[in-house]
Amino acid sequence: MAFGSIAEQGRGYAVRTAGTAAEASADTGKGQARGLTVLLTTAMAFSMMQLFLLGALGPRLVDRLGVSETVLGLTTTVGFGTAAVLSPVGGRIVDRIGPRRALVTLLALSAVALGLIGAAPGSGLLLVAVALGGLPQALANPATNKAILASVPASRRGTVTGTKQSGVQLGAFVAGLPLAVAASAIGWRGAVWVAAGAALLAALWAWRALPADASPPPKGAVSGPTSSSPGGPVAWLAAFSLFLGAGIASVNTYLALFGSRHLGMGPTVAGALVAVLGVAGIAGRVGWSRAATPGRAPWLPGLLAGGAVGAAVLLAAAVRVDPLVWVAAVAVGVFAVSGNAVSMVLVMQRSAPGRAGQDSALVAAGFFAGFAVGPPLFGLLAERGRYGEGWVLVAGEFAVAGVVALAWAVRDRRTRADGPR
Fold it and tell me: Are 366 and 238 in contact (CB under 8 A)?
């Protein structure tokens, strides 16, 4: 009896120990997943930080650096034009070198670009710095998507993707509120240099936190069938992203200037408009990405583009009814900004094995091309004070994005219905 009792106690101890070990392992796994999500979110924030800083600090740049409204739009064109051209190459590079090296490079280049923006004496060096900032943008989506596919279970990829895509809007919030406030205390150059130092620290964090990359595949190795053919989802998503990006970039670049010049806001309050857009974008990207299940996801880009049209109409109405600008900023974040996150979820759902980096880069190239084209067109109207017409132009760009998205969703449903049974 005593021996049996001891044996039962031993078995109970073993079960409890095993359970404790399993729980500890699960907690460790969850902790690692959270750490990865935070790191990827940070990388996305820094990849486009320059855009939001130029937008939030636009009134100061125009007044103190002598940058015109048209040149302010041109900075966006140079940066995102570079990103659009380099994105297809960047996707192939990420597929070869792996996410760790790509993320470290992304963050280091972001630090250098921000540092140069802070040191720019005029438009010339500012444009050079912005062009350099196009490189991390080209790497951002391929690198972060590859990291998710390598480390995150399929059931959680939508949530993690939405969270890391919200990092872009986190960057908008940081640029529009903390850094805009810091600019009042330490000057706009000091605020940009603070951002540059933070990006460098993030690069060191990525190097220490991420596992070593696997050896690259043999050169010329076949990576599987492509999903970027003219009839495939990637080509349609790239076209959708082109028009979506044109509208979003115009809002990002000129929203604070609109508040300052047309609505009579102070620079800090006008910068807060960008922060509000950023917070709404974070919530929208996380929420809509969670909703992007394989059956529902194809229809979401068209729905979000429709909401974005309404947001642009509100901006046009704010020309006469000032308070509407705050509602419009929230709506742009919830609808327009969220469209890019959903498109990235669709890329990961539909990409062939080994092509996630390249397909992500092709869709991102369309998005960046839109960012390059939109602001200069808007800037021509902004210089003449015709903001109402500019916001109507943005509404038109969002409307075209919606038509493209819905056309692909209908085509996709028919293709799947006619497929093998």
Answer: yes
Among 75, 52, 395, smallest CA distance to 255 is for: 52
Residue 322 three-state SS = coil
Distance CA 277, CA 260 (A): 16
Domain residues for the domain of 139 are 38-215+227-417
Give the residue, 251 or 220, on which the prediction is more confident: 251
Looking at the domain assignment, is residue 83 inside a domain? Answer: yes
> pLDDT tens across 135-171, in order?
998 899 889 988 888 888 888 888 888 889 888 878 8
What is the CATH number for 141? Answer: 1.20.1250.20
Kindly state whether residue 124 falls inside one of the protein's structural domains: yes
Q: Is residue 5 in some structural domain?
A: no
Give me the DSSP letters along 103-157: HHHHHHHHHHHHHHHHH--SHHHHHHHHHHTHHHHHHHHHHHHHHHHHHS-GGGH
User: For residues 148 and 161, is the Cβ–Cβ distance under 8 A?
Assistant: yes
- Residue 28 lies inside a defined structural domain of this protein: no
Q: Domain tally for the chain?
A: 1
